[in-house]
Structure formats: C-alpha cells, structure tokens
Amino acid sequence: MKRSLGEKTFSVVNAIIIVLICVVSIYPYLNQLAISFNDGIDARAGGITLFPRKFTWENYKLLFKDPALARAANVSVGRVLASTTLSLLVTYAAAYGLTRKGLPYRKAITLFLMFPGYISAGTIPHYINMKNLGLLNNFWVYVIPGLFAFYNMIVIRSYLQELPPEMEESAKIDGANDLIIMLRIIFPMTLPVVACVALWIAVGAWNDWTTTMIYFTDRDWDTLQYRMRIMIEEAANTQKSMESAMNGGEVQAQSQVTGASVQAATLVFTTVPILMLYPFLQKYFIKGINIGAVKG
Known about the structure:
Blueprint (H helix, E strand, L loop, with lengths): L4 H32 L3 H4 L14 H7 L2 H31 L8 H9 L8 H10 L17 H12 L3 H9 L4 H12 L1 H17 L2 H6 L8 H12 L3 H9 L11 H34 L4
Helix pairs in contact: 1-14, 3-14, 4-7, 4-10, 4-12, 7-14, 8-9, 10-14, 12-14
C-alpha cells in the first residue's frame, strides 16, 4: 500500500525521536558502566564515554570488600520477595472481592479504599504510627505499609472485569467454590496483569531507600539502595575518606580507585538485578498495561 509523503515524513521523524530517546536513556548508564571498569585516577581526567580507557577490576574489588554489601543485598532481596508476594496476595484478593456483584456496599468500600490515596497525614504522623506499632528498626516496616495500593487494585480489578463470566458460571455448576474459582480458574487467566503489577511492586521495593533512612538506625537493616546513597555522599569527599569508609580505616597510598569510580561500580551492581528481570516480564508488562487501562 503506497504511503503519502506526510506518512513517510511522520515515520522518519518518529524513528528519529525514538532513537534520540533511547540514546538519552541508555548513554548515562553505559557511561557509568565504563567508568566503573576504568582506573579511577585516569577517569578524573574526563573523556570517558562508552568504553573504559584504562581497564581495571579495582573498583569492584574495593566495592566487594565492604562487609555491609552482602548483608544489604540479602535485606534487599528479602524485602522484594516479601513485599511482592504479600502485596500481590492482598491486592489481588481485594480486586477479586470487589468484582463480586453480591458483595454488600461494594461502591462504598471502593470509595473508602480510594480516599487514602488522595489524603496523606505526612511523614511525622506516619513515623509515630510505625513507632507505636513497634516497627522501627524492624524488617516488616519494609513490607506492611505497602501491602495495599489502590491503583494496583484498580488495574487488576479492571482486568478481572474483562474476563468472560461464563467460565465462572460453569465452575459453579461443577461445584467449585469462590476460593477454587479464584485460584484455579481466574488466577491463571490473569497472569499478564499480575506480572505487570508484580514488576511495579518489585521495582519500587528495590529502588526505595527513604524507608531505611527514616525508620532505621540499626545499620544491619540497610538495603543496597541505601548503601548506594552512602556511596554517593562519600564520593563527594576526599579519596582518603572513601577508602577509609570502604576498608574500615585501611588506606592504600597508591590506589587506582576514587570515590566517583566506586560510586559508578555501586550503581551498576545495584541495577543489574532489575535489568535482568525486565526482559522476562516485558511482554506481560505491556499486555497488562494495555488491558488494565481499558477501564478505570
């Protein structure tokens, strides 16, 4: 089918814009990747683009000498697994329940769940509430406050409402109760939107560092993102203070690393798990977004 000049022009401009967006999005990460594998002293001179000029493993060797790194990685992984699993359970159950036509006061319950998304008491009341619940310096402060998200519930509910009701009716005729219908019939059909919401929850839990900063004084519960924040702060100091923080006070006179180079290595290390996760969930992510946006 022959295209008009306007359509061809639009395709070319669209392609150029997409390429520019890709370059702007990907280049900073590739640049930090190159710096993380480059000699820190050499990198100070600038000019590092997509490839290291003087390759070295010293930045990563120094990074993995941090005794808190493995502990922070365990905390981050545990937080992501617990948050994603429990939040999906609560959110999915709420969405499924609110699609039941026989549920009394269904609209009132939806409004009740919606209001907290628009009205927030603020950080100080939230901190006092967590303190009264005994969640300060407690792993579960990473999980419990985020168990339910109204937006995620709406996305899942919208998907559920698009499913053919005949399947549920057939299951009820065969004697299945609501729990069996939800777990064995409805849930397998909703895997795209579940994977989409799971990705949102996991990325949010992995990237969050403010929870650690506000609710923890015990550094045994630091996450990887909070450790990266510490690295960013230390990168602004002298190389002596950086090496002292990473090696417990042992400073090497002629080191190949700097604060900025170790910061780049930390950034790469903390983003690799999410980059590995995205390709496997991309098709579910796109499908879940498209279907969940049909109704709101």
